[in-house]
Amino acid sequence: MSLFKTTPTLRAIALTGLLGAASLGAMAQAEKPQYGGTLNIGMVYVTLSPLSWDPADWAWKFGQDTGLMYEQLFAADLNKSVRKGGKYPFVTDAWLPTDGIRGELAESWKTMDNPFRVEVKLRKGVMFPEKPGVMKARELVADDVVYSFTRLDKSPKKIPTYFDHVEKVEATDKHTVLFTFKNYNAEWDYRFGWGYFSGIVPKEVSDAGAGNWKNTNGTGPFMLSDYVQGNAATFSKNDKYWDKEPIGGQSYKLPFVDKIVYRTIKDESSYLTSLRTAKLDVLERIRWSAVDELKKNAPALKWKHSVDTGGTFVALRVDTKPFDDIRVRRALNMAVNKQEIVQQYYNGSAVLFGYPMHPDYTGYFETLDQMPAAVQELFKYNPGKAKALLAEAGFPEGFTFKTQVCSCNPDHMDLLPLVAAYLEKVGVKMKIQPMEYGAFLSAMTTKTNAPGYLMYGGHSNPTTSIRKSFVTKQTWNPSQYSDPELDKRMAATYLEKDESKRQLLIKLMTRDIVEKAPYIWLPTPIVYSAWWPWVKNYDGELRAGAERPGPIHARMWIDQSMKKQMGF
Amino acid sequence: MGAYVLRRLLALIPTLLIASIIVFVTIRMIPGDVIDLMLSQNDIGADKRSREQLVHALGLDQSMPEQYLRWVGAILQGDLGQSLWHSTPVLREVLDRLPVTFELGALALTIGLLIALPIGVYSAMRQDTPGDLFARSFAILLLAVPSFWMGTMVMVFPSIWWGWSPEVNYVKFTDDPWQNLKQMIVPALVLGTSLSAVTMRMTRTMMLEVLRQDYIRTAWAKGLQERTVILRHAVRNALIPVVTLIGLQAPLLIGGAVIIEQIFVLPGMGLMMLEAVSQRDYPVITGVFLVVGVAVMLINLVVDLSYGLLDPRVRHQ
Amino acid sequence: MQVTQELKVASSPTRQLLSRLWHEKPVGAAAALVFLLFVFCGIFADWLAPYGFNEISMLERLKAPSWKHWFGTDNLGRDMLSRCLYGAQLSVIIGLSVATLATTISVLIGLLSGYMGGKVDMVVQRIVDAYMSFPELVILIAVVSVIGPGMPQIIGILSLVLGIGGSRIIRSAVFSARENMYVHAAQSIGASTRRVLWHHLLPNIMPPIIVLFTTRVGAAILIESGLSFLGLGVPPPAPTWGGLLSGSGRTYMFQGPWLALAPGLCLTAVVYATNVFGDALRDLLDPRMRGAK
Questions:
Q1: How many inter-chain contacts (B to C, CB under 8 Å) are there?
Q2: CB contact (8 A) between residue B46 and residue A475
Q3: Average pLDDT of A169-174?
Q4: Which of B23, B240, B277 sits opposite C134 (nearest CB)?
């Protein structure tokens, strides 16, 4: 049979195939989840090992490390995710939109005034599994919540003033917890609710030693079954987990997979390779420089990108000359060609303006176009005006200043010479001082950092983003910015109950700070995450609480036959 | 011989003591106090009182001599202290990671020797023949490529060409030896081949030296077979600096081949040390140092003793 | 007339050596030339480099090798040829300084310990043991943190670490050599220790010393590259080959393989050359081979 004769047949086959695929695609909307399999996940901080299993250690990574087993009062309402037709991508590192929160261990809650109180009704029948040698299986009760809070509050490692707004926490009956506050605090639910340290850990585990991974035991969908420090943490399915997941109109018992392994891989080439060969099913953070090659060599991967949850900037010490002069600071901003950095350095994978408010902070974020002219000016390349401003401030010949950078961050080590090159064109010389991680960080915390300090500042949430970096004497305030007016406004924002009023206050403060330019604002890179197509019920969501992806991972399922078909 | 061994073992103690004091003090002089590091993990500035609370909780408020004495006292009871960050006993963390390093080191050394010794001896025997030149060139080439680059290439390129990459999941040898070896063999090969390059050349050099010695010529003259001459006399004497070399390489392997561990995701002592120093986790650093130190000194003892076995002229005690 | 000619030739041992190198060990001679070429490039980098080593030009980023940029450009548009030439400067400095310092330390300690033997040997070896059981990383990070990353610190620390480590090789060579007949002979006729060491012992342990020196050059360059990988090497924008290879070389190895090939080949070439040259020298200088081929 000649080739040409078979062509109509081939076309027919192709057409049938297409139709079949199309109908399959339609069915995919309501695919029936399968149970079983193991998920290998490289999380956003894939290079870092778990810091601590004990919330009383106040480790910021606690929620990420333990999110699969220790549950919290509140978590993200994943039904409001973009994937399910809602409007939230759930990517921001420590913020949940108010209407994107659902009760996790809390069945319902209500707020009351005079004094400000929150009454939380816990779900009934939520069980702690049996843990031989630690505790018998039993129901979660209000006393567990009270105990967890008290333990956090009394820890020597507690962040000072964190719970100052709390008067008392008590169990009014078996399933009801009453929080009584001294005053309203805009972050009340973030600080103990869906925050970094809000996991509910039973007394028995604390008594046995909460820091020992072998003692861990929570109400969550998974249990920590193995831990190899520096390599992987393995979580096994909790058969008696209480929650269900609605898919295609039906309700399915969670979790779907048998095991989830959180991997720690320090080296970038190694974790990219692991993704390429499907030793990782999901990799939550990929630099823009690695994307093209991965797309070429692993074309089946699915992708999602988002604006990085941290700002990149050079902090200028406003308490030293010449940076006490706002003209100098604004001049430096205009001297840097930020558009070129976006186009050429990041190859387009960056946004010009994404800090201190993250673009996903719905209601809090204003785009550059919405900002006043004085702010927009800082993001337009204008070396002429920069020189003029410098001359006006008394530096017609420019000046020299030292900038510290962490040698642990290869991106920054490349970026800083680029910034220095721009500044040199207006006569300002930057002396670069690379520092090792520990020394770099402590320079900031001891307030001995150099006049210039290139760093990455996490967004966290709208109120914290401003407070931690721009309120007087805060730890993460390397520019030593101090404006008593701002401090007052910040305090007032925390006390403001009405969210829309808070949003306005924050918008105004943001405008003010950006305009005053305590930093050389630099573009915010776009980061990517990728996963293999057999990972279902997932579209790149990253956090369901403050650095807590657990609930998202718990709802994933694996199409095992697809995985086999693809050769893995 | 027995008295010599005993004396050497006793001599370990003052050495370790001095060395431990130096490390203890040096680490605390590094800027970037662990307290500052810990407090900076959180986003609210710590006031003086909470700093003091944290310092006391970590036991860092006592004077240095006090801290050091407490540490020594604890060691004598088998307690290496607790990690400042993980709140886990240092001894347990070290015992978890030591087998990884040991295994990698043993495998790499063995592979290195298996490659180096025969080729080194052959090279010396057939000096300046094409075989010798090729062997030497290859050895030097292996030497000349940085280990992280070799490791990266071994990691990355097979994944692109054949869709294969080394195992990254660590299981203990005692749990599943086959799975464990699947992960270990690739980094051991990379490490072993670079080690072999140095050993190969040293072996060759020393073999050449020895082959020209008088007693070898005597053996030739007596008409002994080449093989007997080689095995019985030349190799044994050429092995002394080679054994020295092994002694030198072993500490590297105990201390942790950090780069290889990082690339091949091996949870060994090297990475542990790197992380601990970066986080200023003093108990872990000093604890690891102690273990490494003891291991190194024991290995050197074995090396020295084997000199006696290999070279009768050196058997002085 | 023949006598005069012979005297003339014999009057310069260095020339003799060089001539022997050229005739008997052509490969070694070639290696020496390669190394000298790099040294030359390093010394005259300022004149040879067509661009500065930190000339950033975003429009020229990641360009493949061309007539304008023989080795291509990196992710910031800097000319790789220039960066490699300046890298040669840095590597030559690091390599030769460390090798010289380290070998000197090794010889001093090795001679002392190996020749004296007995109690002196024991004490010195204990100190060497104590030193060698230090994780090098700890020392390096400590130094790097207190003084900041930089070349002098790295040279100092590497010299110390490699020097003390290498002393054991010298020591073992001394062990073997001191039992030789002519050493005993010299001692028995009452030669001073210094004379014995300098005239009899040292020439006989020259081969391992030379091999040690040449391997140190390469080792120093290689270790610095490993340190760069861990983030502890000579910091950017200093274009050490190790830094180039472990940094942008690895990140952009797909978009721009020349970013890794250029410094990688330079590094490998220099280490290769020094080792081959060292081998050739050793072969020539071995006193037992004098007279033989």
A1: 162
A2: yes
A3: 95
A4: B23
In the DSSP assignment, the letter for residue A342 is I
Residues 12-71 (B) with a CB less than 8 A from some CB of C: 12, 14-16, 18-19, 22-23, 26-27, 29-32
Phi, psi torsion values for B163, nearest 5 degrees: 70, 25
Whole-number Å distance between alpha carbons of A268 and A288: 12
Q: Averaged over C45-68, what is the pLDDT?
A: 87
For the four alpha carbons of A376, A382, A383 and A384, in that order, the dihedral sign comes to negative
Answer left, alpha or beta for residue B281, where phi above 0 means left and psi between -120 and 50 means alpha.
beta
pLDDT digits (tens, 9 = 90+) for A254-287: 999 999 999 999 999 999 999 999 999 999 999 9
- Residue A30: Cβ within 10 Å count: 10
Joined tokens for residue C195: 């004379």
CB–CB contact A421 C231 (8 Å): no
Distances in Å between the Cα of A384 and the Cα atoms of A329, A332, A333, C55 are 15, 11, 12, 22
Half-sphere exposure of A163 (CA within 13 A, CB side): 22
What's the pLDDT band for C141 if we cut at 50, 70, 90? low
Q: How many CB atoms lie within 10 A of CB A373?
A: 7
Cβ(B29)–Cβ(C142) under 8 Å? Answer: yes
Nearest CB partner across the interface for A438, out of B32, B46, B263: B32
- Residue A229 and residue B97: Cβ atoms within 8 Å? yes
List pLDDT tens digits, range B46-68: 566 667 777 776 667 777 788 88
Across chain C, mean pLDDT equals 80
CA distance readout (Å), C148 to A35, A433, A441, B236: 54, 8, 14, 47
Higher pLDDT residue, A400 or C181?
A400
pLDDT per position as a tens digit, A15-32? 445 544 544 544 445 589
Which residue did the predictor score with more confidence, B260 or C125? B260
Pick from B86, B264, B280: which is nearest to A52 by CB? B86
Nearest CB neighbour to B274, from listed C137, C242, C246: C137
Residue B43 to residue A212, Cβ atoms within 8 A: no
Residues C249 and C260: beta-carbon distance below 8 Å: yes
Nearest CA in chain A to B37: A442
Kindly indicate the confidence band of residue A352, based on its pLDDT and cuts at 50, 70 and 90: very high
A 211-230 near B (Cβ less than 8 A)? 211-212, 228-230
